[in-house]
């Protein structure tokens, strides 16, 4: 059945909004070698045992420190790759010595919880919520205390929430790249899933039917995001190969981006089928370690949940994807928000 509204009539437009602002490159003055005072426990999603009790994190909103209860989440990986509990610990140890040798490390993180995340809205360019700012502080503490002995590069998207999230991480080079912006939801930018269902129920159902190829009106599909992120991934792989050839100095890359974009990274590096890509779990407030074994060339993954609470933004595929489904069927898997 045809959509009941004109796809060209909405206000959001990826071609106009998502990729047009200018992006700069900045170089920070110091490398990340100094341990920090605010200790942040790391938690394996599978056992959560390293993250005990509580952690003091500065509240950037008020300037006061407050205690956040550590509440490790259980990351249920819906895809076929395996995670082990020891990989990130192995990686941390490796970075403390240096990153040379037989393993390469890429660290991925979503931005901290944004104001839109908090209210269940997608897209936009809102600021971090207070908990998102606490995550930014926790991320800086965590990465800076790894005492990395080789140059660190931080890449963010061009959106405020990723730039703010990475701001406290000490690094040698910092880049904001529009290619790493979140999937642009076109006329649905800034709406909640409930509002999309209410206003554009058939679009909502069509997306559920094929999330990989579905393009929001005036916006993007996952295939579009794969296409724009592809050259960035190509650059990363090329530079890893070059360093291997030249025995050049290693560097560690921290990429702070968004749910859909990081799904593309995980799908590529972990060889996850594109059909599964739109449902890969990429929780907020979690550092994802990608570690490559040079012998096999294979990348493995490990999740480190930092102890700052946040909303869940993961909406699994609902059972009923028919265009005529009821509202409750359409909203069956929408995560709770505040
Ligand atoms: O909800 C957070 C968010 O990053 C939105 O901005 C974006 O539209 C969405 O996730 C992408 O996830 P999904 O494709 O599962 O809707």
Automatic annotation (TrEMBL):
InterPro entries: 6Pfruct_kin (IPR003094), His_Pase_superF_clade-1 (IPR013078), His_PPase_superfam (IPR029033), PG/BPGM_mutase_AS (IPR001345). SUPFAM superfamilies: Phosphoglycerate mutase-like. Residues 26-44 have a biased composition (Low complexity). Residues 26-56 are annotated as: Disordered. Pfam families: His_Phos_1. PANTHER family: 6-PHOSPHOFRUCTO-2-KINASE/FRUCTOSE-2,6-BISPHOSPHATASE, 6-PHOSPHOFRUCTO-2-KINASE_FRUCTOSE-2, 6-BISPHOSPHATASE-LIKE PROTEIN. In the C-terminal section; belongs to the phosphoglycerate mutase family. This is 6-phosphofructo-2-kinase. It comes from Orchesella dallaii.
């Amino acid at each position: 059945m045809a959509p009941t509204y004109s796809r060209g009539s909405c206000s959001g437009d990826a071609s106009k909004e998502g990729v047009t602002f200018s992006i700069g490159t900045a170089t920070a003055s110091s490398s990340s070698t100094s341990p920090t005072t605010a200790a942040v426990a790391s938690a394996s999603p599978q056992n959560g045992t390293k993250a005990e009790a509580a952690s003091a994190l500065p509240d950037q909103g008020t300037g006061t420190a407050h205690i956040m209860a550590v509440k490790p989440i259980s990351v249920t990986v819906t895809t076929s790759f395996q995670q082990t509990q020891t990989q990130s610990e192995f990686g941390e140890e490796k970075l403390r010595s240096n990153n040379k040798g037989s393993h390469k490390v890429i660290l991925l993180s979503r931005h901290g919880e944004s104001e839109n995340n908090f209210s269940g809205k997608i897209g936009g360019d809102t600021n971090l919520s207070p908990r998102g700012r606490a995550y930014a502080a926790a991320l800086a503490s965590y990465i800076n205390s790894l005492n990395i002995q080789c140059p660190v590069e931080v890449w963010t998207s061009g959106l405020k929430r990723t730039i703010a999230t990475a701001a406290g991480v000490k690094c040698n080079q910092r880049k904001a790249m529009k290619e790493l912006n979140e999937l642009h939801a076109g006329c649905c930018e800034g709406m909640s899933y409930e509002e999309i269902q209410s206003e554009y129920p058939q679009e909502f159902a069509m997306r559920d039917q094929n999330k990989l190829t579905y393009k929001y009106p005036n916006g993007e599909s996952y295939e579009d995001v794969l296409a724009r992120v592809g050259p960035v991934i190509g650059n990363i792989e090329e530079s890893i190969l070059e360093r291997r050839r030249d025995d050049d100095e290693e560097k560690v890359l921290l990429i702070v981006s968004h749910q859909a974009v990081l799904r593309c990274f995980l799908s590529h590096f972990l060889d996850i089928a594109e059909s599964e890509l739109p449902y890969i779990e990429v929780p907020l407030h979690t550092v994802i370690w990608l570690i490559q074994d040079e012998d096999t060339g294979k990348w493995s993954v490990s999740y480190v949940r930092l102890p700052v609470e946040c909303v869940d933004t993961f909406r699994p595929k609902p059972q009923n994807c028919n265009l005529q489904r009821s509202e409750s069927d359409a909203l069956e898997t929408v995560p709770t928000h505040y």
